[in-house]
Design goal:
By secondary structure, the protein is α+β, with helices and mostly antiparallel strands. The protein has a domain of 38 residues. Helix content is 53%, strand content 17%. Strands 1-2-3 form a 3-stranded mixed sheet. Strand 2 and strand 3 form a beta hairpin. The longest helix is centred in the last third of the chain and has 21 residues. It is elongated, with a radius of gyration of 25 Å.
Amino acid sequence: MISVGIRELKQQTSKLLRRVRENGEIIEITYHGESIARLVPVAQPETSDEDIAAVWADLDQLTAEISAKWPEGVSAVDAVKDVRREL
């Protein structure tokens, strides 16, 4: 982990952020030699094909539940217009 002062951070922000993004480096920010913050890479969420399939299955189930109770001859547009407030 490297440490940089606030002045260096201001002067080299793009370069430092590129190091964090591309190399996964953690950069400590200091003020008068005292650590005050850290730049750390954001962990990307891990989604598997199984997770995605589960979401679609849940949406399919919700669609079936809504369809079973939906009144005949009423479009979704009409239903939304019916409950929408006028501002």
